[in-house]
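From the methods appendix. Each design record in this collection lists the discretized structure first, followed by the designed amino acid sequence. Records were kept in a plain field format so they could be parsed without special tools. The example shown here is representative of the layout used throughout.

RECORD:
C-ALPHA CELLS (445 positions):
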C-alpha cells in the first residue's frame, strides 16, 4: 500500500509541507508542477523552489514572490506567512471566507484540487469563527486569506493529487511553546485557532520557544491525514525535506516518507469440518505455485494503543473490580498476565487496549482505580475481520451466531451467553447446543 508518512517533529506549515511533497516528485514532474503553480496568479505571484540547509540537512524551501518581493523574512514569521496569528503585513488585503472559496473555485486546477483546498479553508474558517465567536461568513482572513497562502494550500493539494498516496499518516505534532504576537495582542502557543483545528489530534509542546505549527499547516494535516501516530513499519522508497524559515538548535524541517506498508499473502486456513469452503485462489497459474494464497489484499492497518502497568500491591478482588470497570467503560480488551517483579515478588501485568482518541480517559481510569503510579503506552497495529451477527433457530431455542469474514476467510462462532442460557434451560451439555447452532447456521448457507 503506497503510504505517505509526515514527520512533524518541528511542527508544520503550508510551505514546509509543500517543500517536502515537492521533493517526492519525479524530476520530470517538478517542472510541470511549477509551471502549473505559476499560472495561477500570473503577473502577481511566482513560486520558487530553493535548496536550503538546516543543521547540515538539505531540503527545499518554497518561496512565494509577491510583486517582486519574497513573502516574508525569517524574523517576521516562525515558519511562514500562513498563520493568522502573526502581525499583519501591510501588503496583504483582508479577504472574507466566501470570497476565499470563490477565488479558489476560479483557479485553473482540477475539481478535486479545488474541493480539497476549499475544505482546508473551511477548517481554518470554522476554527477562526470559534476562536473569535463570530459567524464564519463574517471572518476576514489576514495572512491566511492572502494569495500567497492560497499558493501553499493549493500547492499541497495539487502535489497530493500528483503523488496519489493510498494512505496518509502523520506523527503527533510539535506545536512549540511560549507566546506569539498577533494583531489582537500576545497569545499563547498554540494560538487559539490552531488549538481549535488540532482538537482530537495528538500534539505536544517542548523546549522550542515559538509557534511551530501554523493554522494552515494544522488544517492541511487535519484534512488529509487519516491518523496521527508514531511511524508504522513501512518500507521507505524516498524521503523529502520541507524547510522552515527560522533556525533552531534542531533542524527546522518537515520530513515526508514515501513507501509501502508491508502487504503479505495470507495463508489459507485448512478446511475444517462444518466450515464453509475457502475463497478461490488468485488464478489458475498461481494456483499451481501458490495454492494456499488468497486474492484479497489487506485493508489499511488500524492503529490502537496498549496501556499497561505492573501491580504487586492489589488484592485479587480489587484487580477484578478494575478490569470489569475498564471493560464496561468500552475498552477494546482488558486482560491480566502473571509476572515476577523485583525481589521475586509475584505480580500482575494489567493490559488495556483502546482507540487512540480514548487514551487520556483510560489512563485516568487506570491511575484512579489501580495502585500504579505510571502507565506504559505502546502503539499497536492490527488487522481485523469484518463481523456480523445472525439469529439462528435450533431445537434448543434461538442462538446468535457471530460471522467473521475477510481476506478469503470465513469463521462462525455461536455466542457464549446464548449457548450457555440454552444449555441450562434445556438441561443438556454446552457442547450439544454449540454443535446444533453451528449445524443450523451452515444449513442457511
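DESIGN:
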Amino acid at each position: 500500500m503506497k503510504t505517505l508518512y509526515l514527520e512533524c517533529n518541528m511542527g508544520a506549515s503550508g510551505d514546509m509541507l509543500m517543500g517536502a511533497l515537492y521533493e517526492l516528485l519525479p524530476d520530470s514532474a517538478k517542472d510541470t508542477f511549477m509551471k502549473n503553480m505559476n499560472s495561477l496568479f500570473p503577473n502577481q505571484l511566482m513560486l520558487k523552489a530553493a535548496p536550503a540547509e538546516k543543521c547540515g540537512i538539505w531540503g527545499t524551501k518554497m518561496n512565494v514572490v509577491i510583486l517582486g518581493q519574497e513573502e516574508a523574512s525569517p524574523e517576521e514569521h516562525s515558519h511562514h506567512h500562513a498563520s493568522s496569528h502573526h502581525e499583519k503585513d501591510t501588503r496583504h488585503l483582508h479577504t472574507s471566507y466566501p470570497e476565499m472559496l470563490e477565488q479558489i473555485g476560479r483557479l485553473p486546477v482540477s475539481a478535486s484540487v479545488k474541493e480539497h483546498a476549499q475544505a482546508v479553508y473551511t477548517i481554518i474558517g470554522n476554527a477562526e469563527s470559534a476562536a473569535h465567536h463570530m459567524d464564519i461568513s463574517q471572518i476576514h482572513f489576514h495572512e491566511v486569506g492572502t494569495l500567497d497562502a492560497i499558493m501553499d494550500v493549493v500547492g499541497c493539494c495539487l502535489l497530493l493529487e500528483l503523488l496519489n498516496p493510498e494512505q496518509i499518516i502523520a506523527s503527533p505534532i510539535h506545536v512549540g511553546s511560549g507566546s506569539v504576537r498577533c494583531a489582537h495582542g500576545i497569545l499563547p502557543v498554540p494560538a487559539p485557532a490552531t488549538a481549535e483545528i488540532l482538537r482530537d489530534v495528538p500534539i505536544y509542546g517542548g523546549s522550542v520557544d515559538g509557534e511551530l505549527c501554523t493554522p494552515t499547516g494544522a488544517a492541511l494535516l487535519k484534512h488529509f491525514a487519516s491518523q496521527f501516530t508514531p511511524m508504522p513499519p513501512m518500507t521507505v522508497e524516498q524521503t523529502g525535506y520541507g524547510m522552515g524559515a527560522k533556525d533552531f538548535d534542531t533542524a527546522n524541517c518537515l520530513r515526508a516518507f514515501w513507501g509501502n506498508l508491508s502487504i503479505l499473502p495470507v495463508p489459507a486456513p485448512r478446511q475444517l469440518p462444518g466450515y464453509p469452503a475457502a475463497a478461490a485462489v488468485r488464478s489458475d497459474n498461481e494456483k499451481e505455485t501458490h495454492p494456499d494464497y488468497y486474492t484479497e489484499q489487506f485493508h489499511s492497518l488500524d492503529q490502537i494503543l496498549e496501556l499497561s502497568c505492573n501491580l504487586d500491591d492489589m488484592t485479587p478482588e480489587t484487580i477484578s473490580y478494575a478490569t470489569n470497570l475498564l471493560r464496561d467503560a468500552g475498552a477494546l480488551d482488558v486482560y491480566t498476565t502473571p509476572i515476577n517483579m523485583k525481589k521475586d515478588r509475584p505480580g500482575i501485568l494489567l493490559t488495556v487496549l483502546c482507540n487512540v482518541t480514548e487514551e487520556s480517559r483510560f489512563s485516568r481510569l487506570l491511575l484512579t482505580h489501580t495502585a500504579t503510579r505510571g502507565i506504559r503506552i505502546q502503539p499497536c497495529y492490527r488487522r481485523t475481520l469484518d463481523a456480523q451477527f445472525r439469529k439462528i433457530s435450533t431445537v434448543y431455542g434461538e442462538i446468535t451466531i457471530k460471522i467473521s469474514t475477510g481476506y478469503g476467510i470465513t469463521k462462525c462462532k455461536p455466542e457464549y451467553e446464548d449457548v450457555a442460557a440454552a444449555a441450562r434451560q434445556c438441561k443438556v451439555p454446552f457442547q450439544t447446543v454449540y454443535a446444533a447452532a453451528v449445524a443450523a447456521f451452515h444449513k442457511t448457507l
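APPENDIX NOTE: The chain is about 30% helix and 30% strand.
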